[in-house]
Amino acid sequence: MLPPVRCFTCGKPIGGRIYQEFQRRVQRGEDPKKVLDDLGVKRYCCRTVLLSTVVLIDEVAPYNTFELP
Description:
Elements: H1 17-27, H2 32-39, H3 44-52, H4 57-60
Helix pairs in contact: 1-2
């Protein structure tokens, strides 16, 4: 749903600045491998989390899952 704050495997903080910078540069057309190398993301577990994150909050937000009595 939301971008992860930490890597699921090793616990390294990858949210915030790293995730935002990664998304911004990849959307501009840069190579994801080069961006991750420039940001200093070396571990394959952290790289996998950043590459595979799909943010769906904009699609889910309009739906109300709680019914109030």
